Automatic annotation (TrEMBL):
Name the UniProt record assigns to this protein: Methyltransferase domain-containing protein
A GO molecular-function descriptor: methyltransferase activity
The keyword Methyltransferase is annotated on this UniProt entry: yes
Positions of the Methyltransferase domain: 159-253
Keyword annotations: Methyltransferase, Transferase
Record Gene3D superfamilies: Vaccinia Virus protein VP39
GO BP annotation list: methylation
Source organism per UniProt: Paractinoplanes atraurantiacus
SUPFAM superfamilies reported in the protein's UniProt record: S-adenosyl-L-methionine-dependent methyltransferases (SSF53335)
Keyword Ribosomal protein among record annotations: no
């Protein structure tokens, strides 16, 4: 603890917990949407159904909102992150942060942290691209960095394993009209969100979204490329999932993965890092495995490394199924 007293430490923890509770409640109650435009205190009170002066003071004090010319609105960066044009669902990220706080408590109390279907939707939304122009820019960066992927799927077949709400596959389908894809997602409620997004984008004729265990998938024809959302696959499922991916790829077909989390080097960041790691490990997930470790795991399943890349979005690896008969 150094020179910081126990009382000061508790105060810091308490302030952080209260601020997150305020932000998540504001999200849940609709304040973050309502304050996307400047509002008077009277307008906020009418929206809330009660005198909201103290709530507004708290939102301003915590940097969630600002008061300009007698009106209240979201702080600028937060407003941008919550806008419809943002590449990710920041509201879901707020909800997931509150969920993680509850999960930490579950693990400490019971040693486990079960996830409901509704919570799975929150998690999936929080990490997925929202198919829009900004997200298409993100996917374009990935395809520019990995031209083999673009070449394979421009008029080819993509298998998206652990698709979540379809952020990558649906955004990519909206970019590449010749793409045909199959999306595999374990949780039906999560897959249902992906289906609704596909309908909104008009790509249901090209993206087949299936709610199923990826280990049980049998490809009728080989795929040209696979994107595997590996961070969300528990240890006991990974070997069988990789075997399925290998069976599903054509000889020479490619597999793209991303290292989603990395252990920080900064002491303060490392301390915070222990909490999501606590939850992930309790759920059997391989949290923050290094890219070298991931590559070794996949190579052991019969793939050959093409290369690893460091891009603005993080570390990724491109691997290939060796050129051989599909039965090999």
């Amino acid at each position: 603890m150094g020179s910081t007293s126990v009382t000061e430490m508790l105060g810091g923890w308490e302030r952080g917990a209260r601020a997150l509770a305020l932000l998540d409640a504001a999200r849940e109650r609709g304040y973050l949407t309502f304050l996307s435009e400047p509002r008077t205190a009277e307008e906020v009170a009418e929206f809330a159904g009660y005198s909201a002066g103290e709530v507004l003071d708290a939102l301003v004090a915590q940097g969630i909102a600002v008061r300009v010319d007698g009106k209240y609105q979201l702080e600028g960066q937060l407003a941008g992150a919550l806008s419809a044009g943002a590449p990710v669902d920041f509201a879901a990220q707020i909800e997931r942060a509150a969920l993680l706080a509850r999960q930490v408590g579950d693990v400490v109390r019971t040693g486990a942290s079960a996830v409901t279907a509704g919570e799975s939707v929150v998690i999936a939304r929080s990490v997925a691209l929202t198919p829009n122009d900004a997200a298409r820019g993100v996917v374009t960066q990935i395809l520019d960095a990995v031209p083999e992927m673009r070449d394979a799927i421009t008029d080819g077949h993509l298998l998206d394993v652990g698709s979540g709400v379809g952020g990558f596959v649906l955004t990519t389908a909206s970019l590449l009209p010749g793409l045909r894809a199959t999306s595999l997602e374990l949780v039906p409620e999560v897959a249902a969100v992906a289906v609704e997004r596909a309908k909104a984008l008009g790509v249901t004729d090209r993206v087949d979204i299936r709610a199923m265990d990826a280990r049980d998938f049998e490809a009728l024809t080989p795929y040209d490329a696979v994107f595997w959302a590996q961070p969300f696959f528990p240890e006991q499922t990974r070997a069988a999932t990789l075997a399925m991916i290998r069976r599903s790829l054509r000889p020479g077909g490619i597999l793209l993965i991303q290292q989603l989390d990395a252990e920080p080097t900064d002491d303060d960041a490392r301390a915070a890092f222990t909490l999501p790691r606590l939850v992930a490990r309790a759920q059997g997930l391989p949290f923050a495995r290094t890219l070298d470790e991931l590559v070794a795991e996949i190579e052991a399943a019969g793939f050959a490394l093409v290369r690893t890349l460091d891009i603005d979005l993080g570390r990724i690896a491109l691997l290939r199924r060796p050129e051989e008969s599909r039965e090999g």
